[in-house]
Every structure is written in C-alpha cells, then in structure tokens.
Amino acid sequence: MNIKSLLLGSAAALIAVSGARAADAVVVAEPEPAEYVKICDVYGAGYFYIPGTETCLRIGGYVRYDIGLGDVGSFDGAKSFDHEDGEENSTWYKNARFTLKTWTGQETELGTLKTYTETRFNFGNRNGYPSVDDPTTEADEFNNNSAGNKNVSLNFAWIQLGGLRVGKDESAFNTFIGYAGNVIQDTLVPYGDFDTNVVQYYFDAGNGFSAVLSLEEGAGLIGTIDSYVPHVVGGVKWTQGWGAITGVVAYDSNYEEVAGKVRLDVNVNDAIQLWVMGGYGTDDNLSDPSWAIPAGGRGFYKQWGGNWAVWGGGTYKFNEKTSFNAQISYDDWKNLGVAANIAYDIVPGMTITAEVDYLNAGKFDDADFSNWTNADKKSSVGGLLRFQRSF
C-alpha cells in the first residue's frame, strides 16, 4: 500500500511539473532572410555585388615562384659568401610572391566609379651580390644575401570616376604605350621609371582613338618632384583590328627635359603579334649623380642610355596553351639586351615560363659599372624559371 501510494504521488508530481513547464511560452527565433551574393557581369567575369550595395567587387591575384641562375648582370643570378672560407660563390636567386588584387565598379550619374589595388608580398634572397665586402665577422655573415621576408609594396591604389583617375599607379609613359613586350626581363634596356602618384584624365572617342593626360609626382631621391610643378605625360593612341599606333611625351619638371616614345603594334594573324618602339630624350640639363640613380644623367623618364633607344619583339602562339615571346633592345650607349621565353599554361590558371636573357653593356666602366647594372662584366647571360598560379 505504501509503495502504491508512493508511485501515485510521484506520477502526480511529474504531471504537475510538466504542466507548469508547458504553461511557459516557448519562443522560437524567426530565421532572418538570407541575402545571397549576386553575380555582377557588367564589368566582366569574377565580379559580385557587395551585399546591400550597388557596388561590384572582384578579388584576385597570383602566387608566383621564381628560380634564377647565371650571371648577375642579366638580372637573373645571385652571389653569396661561402660560410667556410668567405669566398664569393654563385648561387640561385629565389623569390616567392603573393599578390592580392581588388577591383570595384559602380554606375553613377557622373559615370562609372572604379577602384583598383594591388599589394605584393615577397620572400627570398636578393638578385645580386652580397651586401657586404668583408665576411670575416659574425655580424657580416648575417648579411650574406640570405633568404627572408623582403619588401611589401603597394603597387596600385587608384580611384577613377569617368575618365578622371587619382592615386598610386605606374607612369602613363609606360602604361599607356603598353610596356615593352611579354618577356619577364623587359627592362634590360630600361624604357622609363614606374611608381608614382598621379592625377590623370583618359579620353576614349569610341572609334579607336584614345588619349591620356597625366600629372605625376615621380618617386625616389631623384625622380620625386622638387617643387609644386608636376611631371607631365601626354599620349594618343589609334587602335584598329590590325593593331595600334601609340605615342607618349613626358616632361621631367626637375630637370626641364623632354622624352618621348612611339610604338607600332601589328596583329599579323591569330598566332603572330609583332611590335616595335622607339624612344628619344633630351639630356642637356640632366645632372643627377650616378650614386643616386643607375647610370647618372637619365632622369625619371629617359631611363635608357644616351638620347635614343629602340625596342622590338613579338609573340608567336603555337597553340592555345603555348607561346613564344621575344624582345630585343638597344640604345645610344650601345647597350644590347635580348630576352626570350616559352610560356606554357599547364592547366587553366597556372603558367610555367622558362626564359633566357642576355645583356651586353656598351658603356662599360670597371670603376663605376655597378651604377649601370649590378653586373661585374661587359656581357652576361642568365635564365629564369617561373611558376605562377593566377586567380
């Protein structure tokens, strides 16, 4: 009887507790509406709308690994001190790079609003010679051209509204005319300096004719403007199905000198594209010292030796995956550069490039040669093997 009463009492208590809990309101959180990322195809592949805005964003970049060997003078090899006896050795040049890029686009009542950024992170040794001449001390051993984290650089960071662009860019003296071919080492004979802040205006007539006017700050000890007067670059281009004709003129406000380049591009057929470019610059007032810029007397734009220089080359596509690229360059100082490579797209988004480079320095001076290039002899040969995954 006592057991039966106990069971009945326990059951009653459970029912009472359950009833009390059931009386409490059960609140279930309402799911918030999901806002899915929408594709934006107005500006090309890879863009999507930033949620809650009308701005389209694209994120990309690449991961790259370079292996260089050979003479330092062709900008491919490296030197190091032997850890045991301190003698100078040739060694590999290695560099790993991660590059992050962003693009944005948005339509406004004043035209398309765009931005572009590019930041590069590098790890490896230096392309060149050891940073010290005396490896006899322990402290100097750490300067033995060792591999490590190198510079982080902001290569591009500009805003463009309609035709007006402001921010960090590369000089229109190079970008508008199209650089100097599809080889890795395209500056064996240099064709102009690059990094600068800009205020630019682009004009596109829509019929193949385009133009640019760029006010530039320059960069470096010698290239940065020394007053309120900017460097000025102007360019015009005529583009058709057969190719293009482009011309640019630059005014170096520091030295009141002028340099110009003209380029012809010809699309021979679907497989062959050829180009040739000529440059001329004045140098009456150039007085920059050789310790401040390689081969003193060149200014920010006329980077080649002497008054004139020529560059030429092209691309031959064997098939959709494989191409051959070449460039030959020569200037008034009799500096000769030759670069050629084979680029192979092993899978979509990954390219392997093997390049051979040759440099013959016409104006060779043993006492001051390091100011023209980082070589130690008149002629040098080297090569680069590049692996790049772009996304």
TrEMBL record:
Listed InterPro entries: Porin_alphabac (IPR003684)
SUPFAM superfamilies, per the entry: Porins
Molecular-function GO term, any one: porin activity
Gene Ontology biological process terms, A to Z: monoatomic ion transport
GO cellular component entries: cell outer membrane; pore complex
Primary localization: membrane
Keyword Methyltransferase in record: no
Membrane topology category: Multi-pass membrane protein
Sorted UniProt keywords: Cell outer membrane, Ion transport, Membrane, Porin, Signal, Transmembrane, Transmembrane beta strand, Transport
Subcellular location: Cell outer membrane
Signal sequence coordinates: 1-22
Domain notes: Consists of 16-stranded beta-barrel sheets, with large surface-exposed loops, that form a transmembrane pore at the center of each barrel. The pore is partially ocluded by a peptide loop that folds into the pore lumen.
Function summary: Forms passive diffusion pores that allow small molecular weight hydrophilic materials across the outer membrane.
Similarity remark: Belongs to the alphaproteobacteria porin family.
Descriptive protein name: Porin
